[in-house]
Amino acid sequence: MSIRVLIVDDSATMRGLIAATLRRDAAIQVVGEAADPLQARQAIKDLDPDVVTLDVEMPNMNGLEFLEKIMRLRPTRVIMVSTMTDKGASATIKALEIGAFDCVAKPSPKDPRTFEALPAKIKAVASAPLPRGEPARAQPAAQRATPAFKPDGRLVAIGASTGGVEALLTVLSEFPENCPPTVITQHMPPVFTASFAARLDRMCKPRVTEAVDGAPLRPGHVYVAPGGHTHLTVDKSGGLHCRLTTADAVNGHRPSIDVLFNSVAEAAGKRSLGVILTGMGRDGAEGLLTMRRSGAETIGQDEGTSLVYGMPRAAYEIGSVGKQLPLHRIGAHIVISTNQQG
After folding, report:
1. Does any domain span residue 131?
2. What is the dihedral of CA 168, 282, 305, 91, to 10 degrees?
3. Ordered DSSP codes for 200-257
4. What backbone phi and psi angles, to 5 degrees, belong to 306?
5. What CATH number is given to the structural domain containing 110?
6. Catalytic residue from among 283, 302, 306, 320
7. Which residues of 158-196 are buried (b: 16+ CB within 10 A; e: fewer)?
8. Is 161 labeled as catalytic in the residue annotation?
9. Integer Cα distance of 334 and 297 in angstroms
10. Does 284 lie in the same domain as 146?
């Protein structure tokens, strides 16, 4: 049975481009188009699509307002389509927190092929459970108590993809202000990761920034791989620090989780802890196995709490995962595990 998709965008040109991209995949059926949220609301009722692609900025009611309404009244699988601007990226990150499953950037002269990933994203989220009517909200950092914590010197490396915005917020909300140095690769388009890091920084106690080349890895700091053009790796020469490389995509991704995990295994070995979270595909599975073989502790998100149980499943099936945990227990487990005893 075909996956039924509704396209919502105020630009007829953009609707046509999305539709043409999706119609090249026999598993996907474009059942309708809507130019604004008012048309979209009726179309969702009439057509009952499996997945909706939603523009962030539209007339009559912006995409965020519309998303909040449909997630409250009729939870729907939504993929956000956004311009690669600071405003568009910020709105998209908010949409992913509200309940959108994933995002894709609109094509630009610099990156005209951004829609190539859209069919795979749609097929991945079509089989996922419908979102909850009310998304989980992370408690602001100032309202959480900080347990006594002394980092044991280990480096934490986390990989995530589809569903990772909410998952990472859930994990990092458990981290104390002086958390272990933490590096993250989240599959996300260029520009979006800066907004994502800023959002995490506001919501969590540690300092969260987009990684820059040469940045030393320090306790109390979380470093998010920049999206799109480089891989984030860890280099041990002269002390652990971030290194951004311009190598080719790995597993179809740049940044790649495998690249990060492999570098952490080499740089830190048993003095590291690796985590694979929700996401489609298998990026990170082999790298996490390398970390485990180097003596690192490894954790995988379980199927029941994964928005898309793709990457965690691939890692589990090849023996990369030492311990499988539900999302709400992963952050606390990391803190307990990396807390220096005595």
Report:
1. no
2. 40
3. HHHHSSSEEEE--TT-B--TTEEEEPPSSS-EEEEE-TTS-EEEEE-PPPBTTBSS-H
4. -85, 130
5. 3.40.50.2300
6. 283
7. bbbbbbbbbbbbbbbbbbbeebbbbbbbbbbbbbbbbbb
8. yes
9. 10
10. yes
121 lies in some domain: yes
Bridge partner residues of 299 (DSSP) = 275, 323
The SS3 call for residue 172 is helix
Please tell me the total count of domains within the chain.
Answer: 2
What distance in Å separates the CA atoms of residue 293 and residue 269, rounded to the nearest whole number? Answer: 9
Catalytic residue from among 187, 231, 241, 253? 187
pLDDT tens readout for residues 255-312:
999 999 999 999 999 999 999 999 999 999 999 999 999 999 999 999 999 999 999 9
Provide the β-strand partners of residue 323: 299
Catalytic residue check, 187? yes
Strands 51-55 and 207-210: unpaired
137, part of any domain: no
Tell me which residue range forms the domain holding 317. 142-337
**Collapsing DSSP states into helix, strand and coil, what is residue 104?**
strand
Going by C-alpha positions, the residue among 204, 10, 191 that lies closest to residue 90 is 191
What pTM does this model have?
A: 0.93
Catalytic residue among 82, 90, 161, 195: 161
> CA nearest 23: which of 1, 3, 46?
3
Residue 321 DSSP one-character state? -
Confirm whether 67 is domain-assigned: yes
- Residue 283: active-site member: yes
330/241 Cα distance (integer angstroms): 25
- Using the predicted structure, report yes or no on whether residue 137 has a pLDDT greater than 70: no
